[in-house]
């Protein structure tokens, strides 16, 4: 009988007791929603793994069959659609590689160490130069003469920066430049991270992005490129955020884009 009375009892509207009860109800609902999100994320990851595994097996068979056909029938390589087959297979391999990277980044714990960021960016520049013809499309590096030290997972950071450079290259069309720049942080950028900040910029003179495109550019699988996977930019952002940093974009249609990587220099600021 007492339990029934407690269930029927409602505290006066606006009373402290009512506010406490509503707050507890909201907390309980929030816990339930978080649990559902966790379960949904686990189901999504399991589904992606299963799909990726099946696609990779099928792709391996296709690539093997194509190679055998080229060995047994050398003239097939000169047929009209053979280059398209190779291009499609390469695109599928790139997609599965990006999908694998994206899945693994969900639980990424960066293995950070002190690195010479200036030397590191020079290596990135030299390795990516082969993507540009150096005449119509160029990659430019801008670094201070003094060496800059950063606490980071260089393998993952390399992946993030090269993804952004590749994105810039794809935005150029037949000509233009992509700039890789290491510079000092502004006061606002330092305030944004709340700690001593390193800034890396990747700037292109390509087609640029509308405000609507910028809202969805980091969403997985979003792409407006014919051969894009829609995972390069989300992967880059996940890597930067796993370092306790931020990846920002500034763009204007017809005037190119600037991707700004903000990274904490100090080890205790990295997740």
Automatic annotation (TrEMBL):
Instruction: Could you list this entry's UniProt keywords, alphabetically sorted.
Output: Coiled coil, Kinase, Phosphoprotein, Transferase, Two-component regulatory system
Q: What is its EC number?
A: 2.7.13.3
InterPro entries per the UniProt record, alphabetical = HATPase_C_sf, HATPase_dom, His_kinase_dom, HisK_dim/P_dom, HisK_dim/P_sf, Sensor_HK_Regulatory, Sig_transdc_His_kin-like_C
Identify one Pfam family in the record: HATPase_c
Tell me the leader sequence span: none
Q: Which reaction does it catalyse?
A: ATP + protein L-histidine = ADP + protein N-phospho-L-histidine
User: What range(s) does the Histidine kinase domain occupy?
Assistant: 50-267
Molecular function via GO: phosphorelay sensor kinase activity
Q: Where is coiled-coil annotated? A: 16-46
**Family matches, as CDD domains:** HATPase, HisKA
Could you identify this protein by its name? Answer: histidine kinase
User: Species name for this entry?
Assistant: Lientehia hominis
């Amino acid at each position: 009988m007492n339990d029934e009375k407690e269930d029927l009892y409602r505290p006066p509207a606006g009373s402290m007791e009512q506010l406490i009860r509503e707050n507890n109800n909201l907390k309980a609902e929030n816990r339930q929603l978080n649990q559902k999100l966790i379960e949904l994320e686990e189901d999504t990851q399991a589904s992606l793994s299963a799909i990726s595994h099946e696609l990779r097996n099928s792709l391996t068979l296709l690539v093997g069959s194509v190679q055998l056909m080229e060995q047994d029938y050398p003239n097939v390589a000169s047929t009209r659609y053979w280059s398209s087959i190779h291009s499609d297979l390469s695109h599928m391999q790139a997609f599965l590689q990006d999908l694998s990277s994206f899945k693994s980044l969900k639980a990424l714990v960066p293995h950070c160490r002190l690195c010479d960021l200036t030397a590191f960016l020079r290596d990135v520049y030299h390795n990516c130069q082969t993507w540009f013809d150096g005449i119509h499309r160029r990659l430019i590096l801008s670094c201070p003469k003094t060496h800059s030290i950063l606490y980071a997972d260089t393998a993952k950071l390399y992946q993030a920066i090269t993804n952004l450079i590749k994105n810039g290259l794809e935005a150029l069309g037949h000509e233009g430049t992509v700039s890789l720049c290491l510079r000092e942080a502004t006061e606002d950028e330092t305030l944004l991270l709340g700690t001593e900040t390193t800034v890396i910029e990747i700037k292109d003179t390509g087609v640029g992005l509308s405000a609507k495109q910028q809202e969805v550019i980091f969403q997985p699988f979003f792409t407006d490129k014919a051969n894009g996977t829609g995972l390069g930019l989300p992967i880059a952002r996940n890597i930067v955020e796993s370092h306790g940093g931020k990846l920002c974009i500034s763009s204007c249609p017809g005037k190119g884009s600037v991707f700004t990587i903000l990274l904490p220099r100090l080890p205790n600021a990295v997740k």
